[in-house]
Amino acid sequence: MSHLLEVRDLEVKFALRSGDITAIDGIDFTLDQGERLGIVGESGAGKSVTGFSIINLISKPGFISRGSIYFEGNKISDYSDSQMRTIRGNRISMIFQDPMMTLNPVFTIGFQMIETLRAHKKISKSDARAIALEKLKKVQIPSPEERLDQYPHELSGGMRQRIIIAISLLVNPAIIIADEPTTALDVTIQAEIMDLLQQLCETEKMGLILITHDLGVVSQVTEKIAVMYAGKIIEFGPTDQVVHSPVHPYTTGLIGSIPGSTAPGEKLLQIPGMMPTLSNIPEGCAFNPRCDLCEPICTRKTPPLEKKQNGTMAACHIKD
Amino acid sequence: MKKKLQKFKESYFLYSFKRDKVAMTSFIVLVLFLIIALTAPWISPMDPYDDHNIDIMNSEIPPMWMDGGSSEFILGTDNMGRDMLSTMFYGLRTSIIIGLGAVSLQAVLGVVLGLTAGYMGAKTDAILMRIADIQFSFPYLMVAIFIGAMFQVVFGVGLYEQLAVPLLVIIIGVSNWPMFARTIRASVMGEKHKEYVEAARVIGLPRLTIMFRHVLPNSLTSVMVIFTIQVGSAVQSEAALSFLGLGMPVTRPSLGSLIRAGQEYIFSGSWWITIFPGLLLVIFVLVISLLGDWLRDVLNPKLYKG
Amino acid sequence: MNTKKPLVSINNVVKHFDISGGLLDQLSFKGGKIRYEKTTVKAVNDISLFVNRGETLSVVGESGCGKSTLARVIMGLYPPNSGQVLYDGQRIDNLSHNQWLPFRKKMQMIFQDPYASLNPRKTVRQTLEEPLRFHNPRLTSTQVNDKIAEVVEQVGVDPVWITRYPHEFSGGQRQRISIARGLILDPEFIVADEPVSALDVSIQAQILNLLMELAEKRNLTYLFITHDLSVVNHISTRVAVLYLGTLCELACAHDLFCEPRHPYTRALISAIPKVGEKKAKHIRLKGEVPTPVFLPRGCVFHGRCVYANDRCTREVPELMELSNGGFVACHAVEENRSME
C-alpha cells in the first residue's frame, strides 16, 4: 500500500422514499504525499459527495454502499465514528466554500485556534497561542497578532478563508480536501488563496484534493485531474494531458464552453442539454444523449475507465 | 383538476400526514368536531334554545350510567334542566363560529396591514408596527370588558344578548391582528427583495398588483400555520371571556359559559355540568395545537427533506 | 465625446443607501455631545458613461463595487441621489410611474438567480402573459398566444412546457424563461445582471451563445453586469471597470485585455485563471477592500495600489481620455509613472 490515499470502487447511495439513488457510482483514484488532485464537474456530478465520503461525513440519507478507502494503509472506510475523529480534522482537513461553516461566530479566532490545538495535543495555552500565531504568519495574514483577538465577522471573506487554512494547518495534516474554497471570493483574492494552497502543499508536503467547477483554477494548481459526470469519473490523468488533449467528449465540451476558448464574439462550443438527474441516468454511457459522437454501443454498454493513447484514462467507447 | 389531485396524492404533504399518527388522529377528531358543530340542530337530542323543551324539574340529573341517571339524558342535565349533550353540541358550534370568525377577521386585518407595512417599509412600516405594538400591549380582556360594558350600557342587555356573537368576533379579532401582521410582514420583507419582484417592477406593474398578486401568494405559507393555532387560542379567549361573564349569555351558551354555569354546582356534587364541556374544550384546543405543530414542521422548508 | 447619439447615457450618478435604521440608531454619544449621524453605503459615486446603440457594454468589478446598484439605477428601480439617466436623449430618472411606462417596453432586465427571478406560483405562461397584456391590453388571445410561442421558441424552450411551474425546470431552462420574459415586450435595450454566474459551465456557454444570437437577431443593446472577466472578454464591445463605486477605466474590450492601464484593471486581468496556461505571475494587491461605508480619501484604490504616492491619497483622479479612445482615472497613468 504505497499510496497516501486510495479510493477503490467507491459507491455512495442516498436512501430516498422513492428508493435508493446512486450519487457516486464506483470511482477509483489515488493520492500520494504532496500531490495535488483536482476533481472537476458540474453541480450534481458527485464531486462534493466524494470529498465528504473520504472523511465519512456524508449527510444522513446518504451512505457508502460499496468500495473502500485506504489512508496510510489503513482501511478508514471501516472506521467507527470515534476512530474517524482521530483522522478527521487532524490527519485530513477539510475546507469549505463558506468559511462560516467551520468558524464559530461567537468566539475569537485565537480562542478557536487554541481550542482546536488543545483538543488534539496536550500543551499549555501560551504554547498553543504561539503555534497559532506561527500558522497565521504562514498563511500570510497581515498583522496576525491582532487577528487572534478578532471575531470572524470582523474579517473579510478572503481573510476568513485564510484563517480556515491556518486552522487546518495547526495539526499538520497529510491531506487537505478543499471543496470550492474560492467560489465565493473575488478573482484577485481567489488567485492569492490558490497561490497559498499550492505553496503550502509544496513546503509542507501535503496532499491536496481540490474540488471545483472551475477548470481554469484546477488546471493552474493541480497535477492530476479527475473529471466527474453523473457520479462517475469519466476522465482521469495528468493535468496537461486532460486540458490540452482530452479524450472524452464531455471534457472536450467542458473546455470548449469556457469563454476565452474561442475568439471573442464567436459562438462558444456548447454541449446540448444538461446533466441527467441522479434518479434518471440513461442506460449505457451517461453522457450519450448529449454526445455528438454517440454510437449504438453507447446507449447499451457502460464504457469502462481505461488507458487511452494521450496518457489519460477515459470512460468512452470511441477509439483513439 | 385530475392532475392536481394526482399531484396532491404524490405530495410530501400527504406523505408526511399519513406517516404521522398524531396528526392523523388530531385531524379526524377535528373533522368530527366540525361535523358536530355544523349539524348540531339535527343531531342533538333536544334544542336547548327552545324554552318549551326545558323543564326545571329535570335539572341536575346525573349522566345515565350513574344512580338517578336517565337514558333520556345521556350526559345528564344542567342546572336549568337542559340536556348536557345537546347543550354541549350547541356550545361547540357557538365556540367554533366565534373562533373561526374572529381569526378570519384577524387574518384579513393582519394580512392587509402586515403586507402594507412590509412592502412599503420606511415610515408606513414604522407607524403600522407601532400601532401593532400598542394593540399588543393592551390585554384583550381589558378591551373586551370595556367594549362589552359600553355596549350593554348604551344598547341594553337585550340587544347585547342578540349581538353577542358578532361582538365577540370583533373584540377577539381586533385585539389579535398584530400576530398575523408581524408574521406576514417578516416574510414579505424577505420576499420583496427577491428578483421576481424586481422583475415585476421592471415590467412596470402597479404597486398594488405586485403586492397582492406577486408578493402575497408567496408569503402565505406562514399564515396557514398561525391560522390553525390562532383558532385554538381564539376559542380559548372566547371561553375565558364567557367564563368571566363577558361573553356569551347563559341562554345561548358557548363552551365557556357552560363551564361557568356549571362550576357553581361542582361542590353540590353535579360535577358533570362543568367537567364535560371543559373536557370538550381541552380536546378541541389540543387537537388544533397538535395539527398546527405538524403543519409548521411540514411547511418549514428547513426541515423539508424529500 | 462621441458623434453618434448614445442610446443610454448616465451623467454623474450618485447613489447612497441609508443603512442607519431608526431614529434612535442614528443618535450617538461622542465627546460629551449627542450627535445625529447617518450611516450610508456609498454604492455608486459620480459615475458617468454611455451605451451606444447595438453595442454590448460590460460593467465589471468585484463584489461590492456598485455594479448591480448602477444597473438598478438605470432601470429606475432605485432613484439616484444626484445625477441623470438619459434614454435616447430623454431624461428618465425623475419620471413618475406612469411616465416610465413607455420606457418599460424599451428597457428590460435579466437577473442573476434563476431560482429567485421567477415567481414560483406562476406558470411560465402566466409569467410571460402578464407583461404582454399589461402593456398591450388590446391584444386578442390568439395574438398573445402567438407572441408567447414565438419568444419561447426563440429562447429554446419547448412551447409544450409553458403550462408548468418554474420549479419543474432546471437552472438553465429557468434562465431561458427569464430571458423570454425580458424579450416579450420587444425591448431594444437589456440590462443583464450577472445572467450566467449562477449556472454551470456547459449551461453558461449555452446561455451566452443564446444572448449573442438574440443580440444579432433583434438588434439589441446590452448593458452586461458581471464579475467574470473571461465572459466579459468574450461578449463585450466595450468594458467599464468599477472599483468601490467609482469608474476606473473604460475601454474597448480588445484594448482593455491586451493593454490594461489602470493598476486595478491590470491586477484583475492578471488574476483570471486560464485553462491550460501554466500560472503566469499575477499582480498582488496589498491590503483589503475598504467598506463602501467609509470611503478612502483621494483615489479610492490608493490603499491597495503599489504605485500610489502622496497625491493619490489627497486628490481624486479625474477620468481622462487616452489616445486609443479609452478612459482611465489614475494619477499614475497621467503622470506616466513606471508600472513594471
The amount of beta strand of chain B, in percent, is: under 5%
The unreliable regions of chain B are: 302-306
Largest interface (CB within 8 Å) is between: A-C, 45 and 44 residues
- CATH fold annotation of chain B: MetI-like fold
Q: What share of the residues of chain B lie within helices?
A: over 70%
Number of helices of chain B: 11
Radius of gyration of chain A: 21 Å
Shape of chain A: globular
Order of helices and strands of chain A: EEEHEEHEHHHHEHEHEEHHEE
What does this structure look like?
The model of chain A has no long low-confidence stretch (mean pLDDT 86). With 320 residues, chain A is of the alpha/beta class. Chain A contains ten helices and twelve strands. Chain A has an eight-stranded mixed sheet with strand order 6-7-8-3-9-10-12-11, sandwiched between helices. In chain A, strands 2-1-4-5 form a four-stranded antiparallel sheet, covered by helices on one side. With 306 residues, chain B is mostly helical. Helices cover 74% and strands 0% of the residues of chain B. Chain B is built from eleven helices and no strands. Chain B has helices at residues 2-10, 12-19, 21-43, 84-120, 122-137, 140-191, 195-203, 207-219, 221-243, 255-263, 272-299. In chain B, helix 3 (21-43) packs across helix 11 (272-299), helix 4 packs antiparallel against helix 5 (122-137) and helix 5 (122-137) packs antiparallel against helix 6 (140-191). Helices cover 32% and strands 22% of the residues of chain C. Chain C has helices at 23-26, 67-74, 97-106, 124-135, 141-154, 171-183, 201-218, 229-235, 253-258, 263-270, 310-314, 331-334, and strands at residues 8-18, 27-30, 33-36, 40-51, 56-60, 82-87, 90-91, 107-110, 189-193, 221-226, 238-243, 246-252, 320-321, 327-328. Chain C is globular, with a radius of gyration of 22 Å.
